[in-house]
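Hi R.,

As promised on Friday, here is the backbone we talked about, encoded as structure tokens. Could you run it through your design pipeline when you get a chance and send me back a sequence?
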């Protein structure tokens, strides 16, 4: 076997197909299976399926394994914790891994002001809790979110999520007092297409007058508890917000007593070439929500924020049975150590340069690549129809299947389902990265004009 990709059967092979058949009889189809493979082992950036195929994982468990599958330090930390205790319930008995993790997150998130952290189980739960706290602290009800944003699938998180199908259709009613404003999606911005701001490279929404106008049409700023934002959209298509927009919005929020909640669930823990995307913007959020790669594969999410905001809630107002599970906290402490000892954010920045350069080379030959964008290793490319630049989700699906046939697991993103995104573990060795990118290039040639 020369490289990593080693296909002993077609994808999916007979064993994967058999498990998928059992799955379809036991699990509702609403829970999607975006690849037709069944997995038996994962290590670093490589997945072994039930048929013995070795595949390169550029999906990274949907952004969960920035530190790689089964990082030895994470495995060791979880094993050691399992030998002590697996659960007591933090509301019942205090344990050190939770407290230490809260201390660490208070330290490493932007801003040197006093902070507090509490832990929950999933990204959606962190989002719900952040909004809950912001409402309590401000005594206001409205929450402002973004077109193309994704914040999870529980009821309030779903109200904050933008994309209708498949997430929202038929699942209403949604939580009230949620207001949505446009995300600065430069590639499809009407002003930019007219050429208005393209030359200056400026964001046409990144100024105070425009923000005042947007809010005048949407929600009274003085009734808004919080704005929640992904600085680079994840599920919404890997679209980074222009810095001037974020700066203007943060100032607008501050002037109106609106809390700025930054959703770093997908952008966090090195993905964007910094530990947190907020650092690219010099932004100090009032509240930050984190999940995914925090737990290194174990379910864990965190709400970190200004001490005065988080301390405002009464005793018993926050918490849950499983939040801050000891095994997950032990894993997270190991992840944070790895972030530092293996300089994961700088590796991500270097990896991102390599991915961007390959994508840009392909874009020079294939007019179906409309846009290449992203921060650090959080790079995506938007596939479009050649003449109209209309989104091409069908081509995107053909590309993902062609990549899988060549041994690379990839995901799409975007409201129009036409962005190919890379969420490879940030520990991926250069040779494996190149092998995966070579396979992607072959896949692109096979489907694109
Ligand atoms: C930015 C963002 N916020 C929230 C969530 C929801 O997280 P979870 O699926 O853990 O509930 C996701 C999940 O993809 C996400 O990408």
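Update: got your reply. Pasting your designed sequence below so it's all in one thread:
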């Amino acid at each position: 076997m020369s490289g990593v990709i080693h296909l002993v059967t077609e994808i999916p092979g007979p064993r994967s197909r058999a498990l998928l058949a059992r799955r379809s009889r036991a699990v509702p189809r609403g829970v999607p299976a975006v690849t037709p493979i069944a997995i038996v082992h994962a290590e670093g950036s490589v997945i072994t399926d039930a048929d013995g195929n070795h595949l390169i994982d550029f999906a990274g468990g949907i952004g969960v394994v920035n530190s790689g599958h089964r990082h030895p330090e994470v495995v060791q930390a979880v094993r050691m914790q399992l030998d002590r205790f697996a659960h007591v319930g933090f509301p019942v008995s205090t344990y050190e891994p939770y407290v230490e993790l809260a201390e660490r997150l208070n330290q490493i998130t932007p801003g040197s002001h006093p902070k507090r952290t509490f832990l929950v189980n999933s990204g959606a739960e962190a989002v719900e809790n952040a909004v809950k706290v912001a409402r309590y602290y401000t005594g206001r009800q409205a929450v402002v979110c973004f077109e193309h944003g994704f914040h999870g699938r529980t009821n309030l998180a779903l109200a904050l999520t933008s994309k209708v199908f498949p997430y929202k259709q038929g699942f209403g009613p949604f939580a009230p007092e949620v207001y949505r404003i446009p995300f600065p999606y430069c590639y499809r911005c009407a002003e930019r297409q007219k050429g208005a701001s393209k030359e200056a490279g400026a964001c046409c929404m990144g100024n105070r007058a425009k923000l005042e106008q947007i809010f005048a049409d949407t929600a009274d700023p003085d009734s808004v508890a919080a704005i929640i934002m992904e600085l680079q959209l994840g599920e919404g298509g890997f679209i980074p917000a222009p810095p001037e927009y974020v700066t203007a919005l943060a100032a607008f929020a501050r002037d109106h007593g609106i809390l700025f909640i930054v959703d770093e669930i997908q952008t966090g823990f090195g993905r964007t070439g910094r530990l947190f995307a907020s650092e690219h913007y010099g932004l100090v959020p009032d509240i930050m929500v984190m999940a995914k790669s925090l737990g290194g594969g174990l379910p864990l999410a965190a709400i970190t924020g200004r001490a005065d905001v988080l301390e405002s809630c009464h005793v018993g107002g926050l918490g849950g049975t499983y939040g801050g599970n000891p095994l997950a906290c032990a894993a997270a402490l190991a992840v944070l150590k790895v972030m530092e000892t293996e300089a994961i954010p700088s590796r991500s920045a270097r990896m991102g340069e390599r991915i961007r350069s390959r994508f840009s080379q392909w874009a020079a030959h294939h007019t179906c690549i409309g846009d290449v964008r992203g921060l650090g290793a959080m790079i995506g490319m938007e596939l479009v129809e050649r003449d109209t630049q209309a989104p091409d989700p069908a081509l995107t699906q053909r590309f993902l299947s062609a990549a899988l046939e060549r041994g690379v697991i990839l995901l799409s993103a975007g409201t129009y389902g036409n962005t190919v995104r890379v969420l490879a573990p940030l520990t991926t060795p250069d040779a494996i990265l190149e092998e995966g990118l070579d396979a992607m290039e072959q896949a692109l040639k096979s489907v694109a004009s």
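One thing I noticed while checking it: The first strand starts at residue 39 and ends at 43.

Thanks again,
M.
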